[in-house]
Amino acid sequence: MVNIHSELIQENSLHPKILTRIDLDENKKNCQLDIVYVLPPSVFVDPYQLKDLEGHLGRATIFGEHDLELPLEKIKETRGSIVFLRQKEIPTGQLQLELPFHLRYQQPSNKVTSRLITIEAPYAGWTCALGNQNASWPPLSDQYPLLPPPTHTQDITFIRLTHDTAPLTLFVPVGKIQDSQLVTWGTFSIVIFCTLWIIQSIFLSIKKRKRSEVKGKRRKSE
C-alpha cells in the first residue's frame, strides 16, 4: 500500500508551498514516478524557479497558463495549469517534495477582503513503458483537456496511486476598489519622484566631473 499526503505550508506568506509526502514500499522496473498537480487559475508556478529546483523536485513539465505577470482577470486559460514532476531518482522509503507556487492578483472588490482558493490534492503514479518505448507523460488527456495526447499511447500504462488527502484551501487578499485611485496616484508620484532624483543625480555627477576636469587643467598649467 502506498500512502500519499499533501498539505500547504507557508500558506499565509507571499511564497506558499505544497508539501507532498509519498511512502514507497517498492520501485517498479521500467517505470517512472510522476507527481501530478492540477492548479486553478488563481495560482501558478514559475517555470524558471522549478528549473533551478530540478535537483530537489525532479524534471518539471507545465501545461496551461503560467504567465508570471497577469492578474486573474487577464489570463486567457481559465482552466489553470497542470504540473508534472518526473523523478530522476526514486528513493526507497519516503519521498518528500515542496512545490513552490504563487498567487495571482485578484480583481478588486468592495464586498470582500479575501477569496477562498481550492487546489485539488496532488497525486502520484507510475508511468510505465512497454517494450523499448520511452514513457512520456501519463495518458490523462481525456480527464484534463489541457494536456496534449501522449506519444506511444498504446505502450504506456499510468497507475494512479491512492491518496486520502482532502482538497487544499487558502485565502488570498483582495484589494478595495475605493483604494484604486490612491494606489494609482501614489504609484505615479513615486515614479515622478524617482525620475527627478535620477535626473538630479546625473546633473550633480556631470557638474562634479566638470569641476574635477577644471582643477586638473589648472594644475597642469601651473
Helix content: 10-25%
Which series of helices and strands comes N to C?
EEEEHHEEEEEEEEH
Shape: elongated
Overall pLDDT score: 78
Which residue ranges are poorly predicted, with pLDDT under 50 across at least 5 consecutive positions?
Answer: none
Helical segment tally? 3
| Rg (CA only) | 26 Å
Number of strands: 12
User: In what range is the share of β-strand residues?
Assistant: 25-35%
Major β-sheet profile: 5 strands, antiparallel
Structural class: alpha+beta
Tell me the span between the first and last alpha carbons: 92 Å
Strands of the largest sheet, in order across it?
Answer: 5-6-3-10-11
How would you sum up this structure, described in words?
- The protein has three helices and twelve strands, in the order ββββααββββββββα.
- With 222 residues, the chain is α+β, with helices and mostly antiparallel strands.
- It has a five-stranded antiparallel β-sheet with strand order 5-6-3-10-11. Strands 1-2-7 form a three-stranded antiparallel β-sheet, with no helix packed on it.
- A hairpin with a 7-residue loop joins strand 1 and strand 2.
Present the secondary structure layout:
Layout: E1 3-9, E2 17-24, E3 31-39, E4 43-44, H1 47-52, H2 54-57, E5 59-64, E6 81-86, E7 93-100, E8 102-103, E9 114-119, E10 123-129, E11 156-160, E12 168-173, H3 180-221
Antiparallel strand pairs: 1-2, 2-7, 3-6, 3-10, 4-8, 5-6, 9-12, 10-11
